[in-house]
Amino acid sequence: NAGVTQTPKFRVLKTGQSMTLLCAQDMNHEYMYWYRQDPGMGLRLIHYSVGEGTTAKGEVPDGYNVSRLKKQNFLLGLESAAPSQTSVYFCASSLLPPGQGHGETQYFGPGTRLLVL
Amino acid sequence: RKEVEQDPGPFNVPEGATVAFNCTYSNSASQSFFWYRQDCRKEPKLLMSVYSSGNEDGRFTAQLNRASQYISLLIRDSKLSDSATYLCVVNTRPSSYKLIFGSGTRLLVRP
What share of chain A is helix, strand, coil (3-state, %, to 5)? Predict the structure, then answer.
């Protein structure tokens, strides 16, 4: 039981390049989330998914796209990377959404450090 | 004003000390409250949920004060392994999937 895994762990991009971050969870969770964490700021929600085939915008969705073709995977894409997207990206999953009781705990992956030059 | 505010610290305390952190939130309709712990360059992990009646888990006690809109975390008998950043997390609206994370309070426990 690996929990939540993310690939890659670290990546350097040039401005304008594209890439996809992969998140996988083996806990059969319905809800999945992508966050970014920047120095001095709390984690901010980029996009989330409430089940296979669904996606929705979070707090800071611009410049990112997501897909949830399989329940266990949630992909985050950067079509044209910008230096402002330099950050640490965390994926998370939960059995239930926030406010629904014990299953609302979000389990995080180890993160992807992205540097855009 | 930030939706969730925390003192960034660092709080530098000796082993065995008792330390408390507060976190204020701006939305009075907030429903769920949590403390997450994040070690340096690692992912956040749930430390404890915060219930209206307050709750305790070993050396950790969390309290919620809805009237003043803050939550607190008390750590007794601090251990070196408690050194980390503690994130205050709030679910701001009913049926919202959005958790608001504070920027964290850093704790350093020295020998």
Answer: 5, 45, 50
